[in-house]
Amino acid sequence: MEFSTIIDAIHQLPEQSKLKLIRSVQEVTFPKGYSLLKAGTVETRIYFIKKGIVRAYASTPDNEITFWFGKEGQAIISMRSYVEELPGYEDIELLEACELYELKTEQLQHLFEEDIHIANWGRKFAEQELIKTEERLIQRQFRTASERYKELLLNHPDLIQRIQLGHIASYLGITQVSLSRIRAELK
Amino acid sequence: MEFSTIIDAIHQLPEQSKLKLIRSVQEVTFPKGYSLLKAGTVETRIYFIKKGIVRAYASTPDNEITFWFGKEGQAIISMRSYVEELPGYEDIELLEACELYELKTEQLQHLFEEDIHIANWGRKFAEQELIKTEERLIQRQFRTASERYKELLLNHPDLIQRIQLGHIASYLGITQVSLSRIRAELK
DNA sequence: TTCATTTTTTATCATTTGTAAAATAAATTG
DNA sequence: CAATTTATTTTACAAATGATAAAAAATGAA
Question: Which residue from A115, A126, A142 is facing B127, i.e. has the nearest CB?
Answer without folding.
Answer: A126
